[in-house]
């Protein structure tokens, strides 16, 4: 409750608090899933900066298109 009261004092509603808890829980699950798959992340912060700039400029659609093309190529 110690985190709820300051949020309420800033005007957060029950729905907004509920959404925040669900989003935090989802990211916790995503992180555990990715860790469980044994994935690695680039250690160079410049990789993250470049990716963020590309996402801001182009959105996610080029990534989806590339993934779909990769899947199609893998199927033959």
Automatic annotation (TrEMBL):
This is Carboxymuconolactone decarboxylase-like domain-containing protein. It comes from Streptomyces polygonati. The lineage of its organism: Bacteria, Bacillati, Actinomycetota, Actinomycetes, Kitasatosporales.
């Amino acid at each position: 409750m110690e985190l709820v009261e300051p949020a309420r004092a800033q005007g957060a509603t029950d729905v907004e608090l509920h959404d925040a808890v669900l989003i935090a829980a989802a990211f916790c699950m995503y992180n555990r899933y990715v860790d469980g798959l044994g994935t690695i992340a680039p250690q160079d912060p410049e990789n993250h900066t470049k990716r963020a700039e590309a996402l801001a400029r182009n959105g996610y659609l080029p990534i989806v298109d590339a993934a779909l093309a990769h899947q199609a190529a893998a199927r033959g």
